[in-house]
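call fold(seq) -> C-alpha cells
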Amino acid sequence: MNRSAFDPGVNETSGDLIDLVESLNVPLQRLSEIAATANERYDVYPLVIGKKKRWIEAPRDKLKQLQRRLLDSVFYRLVPHESAHGFVRGRSIVSNA
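ret:
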C-alpha cells in the first residue's frame, strides 16, 4: 500500500515536508485533514455565457488562503525553466515566438 506523506499514520521525518509545514505555518495534522477533504473544499457552480455553460470550481476561503501561502512561500521562490514564458515576469507569448 502506497501511503501519502500527509497520512497521519505515516511517521514522516523528511526535511522537505518539515520545511513545508514550517513555511506554511500550518501543523502537519491540519495539512493532513485538508488533503483528505480537498474535494469538499470547493464551491462548484455553472457559469452560463450565452448558450455555453462551463463549470467553475472555486476554492473556499480557508483553502484559498492556504493555496496563497503555498504560492508565496514555495512556488514563487522556484526558478522557472528557461523555456517557460507563461506567467513569468518579463516574458510573454511575444518573447516565446
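Strands lie at 42-49, 52-59.
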